[in-house]
Structures are given as structure tokens and as C-alpha cells.
Amino acid sequence: QAMAEQRKELKITRKTRKTEQYFNLRPLVDYDAVFIPDEPKVVGQILPTFAYRDVSGVQFLGINTWNSPELFSRAQNWAVGSLFTEAFYPESNSGMVKRFMARYRQTYDADPGAIEAMAFDAASLLELAISNGAQSRTEMREFLKGVSNYPGVTGRISWKDGAFTRNVSVLTIAKNGQVLAAPQEKPAER
After folding, report:
1. Which residue from 10, 40, 62, 173 has the fewest beta carbons nearer than 10 Å?
2. Model confidence over 86-110: pLDDT tens digits?
């Protein structure tokens, strides 16, 4: 409204290179973060669009598919500082994760991903139930319902409200494109 009045006062009737400032509205950014649950190919197109539209200071949030070198190669510096979650972070300093990584590489001559880590945790819980005397489905279920803060390679696992929960890794993109663990005050729970 104020811009329209200003154009009228200055008798500006059409948009030119010299007068475009009287036509272009600055974006109204009344949010702190944008969640984009998509693949790096799409995210690489979306993130630069915010800068093109003069939107800055917004935290970008994503999903585990962002844990890929492709995100930085497509979105470049616009991806720096973005946050996303992942069930398994192989670069963790945890001794348990390091041992799992070494055993997996030795056995399969490859690096494990999140699916392999979650399968390892599931099998470890079943092994623990059996070693604690569970001999039937009912006994197994009852044992698993009592799991609390089990130290898995994907984080601390607990049974809560009819489902397993675990701390997920919150990751970020560094200026060099490297995926790093994001500093956080309290672990996210999934």
C-alpha cells in the first residue's frame, strides 16, 4: 500500500530498471525454518530460490535423503547449515559404532548404511532377549517391552507407548560440503 502511494507521488507509471525498486516488495518472512522433505535433486533447486527471492536467515530442515554428497553438489553454499536427521551416523565417535563399522567392513568389504545398522540393533535386542531366557513369542515381547536406554549403534533404544524410540543423529552441511554432526543441546527422539 505504501509503495503504491509512493509511486503515485513520484508519478511512476511503469516498471523500468530505474523504477523497479518501487514495484518490488521485500518478502515478508515471519517464520524461522522451512522443512523440505524431498530428494537432493529437488532440494538443490529449492534452496537457491529462497536467495533469489531475497529470503535470508531461514533455517532449512530436511530428511535422511539429504545425507548425500549430491545435496551439496546441487545446492552448493545454500545447503550450508541445513539440518536433517539420520538414524545412523557412521562418523560417530562412539566406540560401539566404530566396532560395528570395523566388523561390518571386515565381513562385507563395504560400509554399512542406516538399514544395516538398524538390522544390527534389532538382531542384538533379539539376541539379548534369548540370552535372558525368552523362549516364546510372549516372553520375547515382554522382554522387549522392558527395553530402556539400550545402547545400540543407532542410538539409545527404549520401548515407549507401544513402539521403540531411539535418539536420531542431527546432521548438518559444513562450508566444504562435508556432512557433520550438528551441535545440539538435547538429542532428538524418534
Report:
1. 10
2. 999 999 888 999 999 999 999 999 9
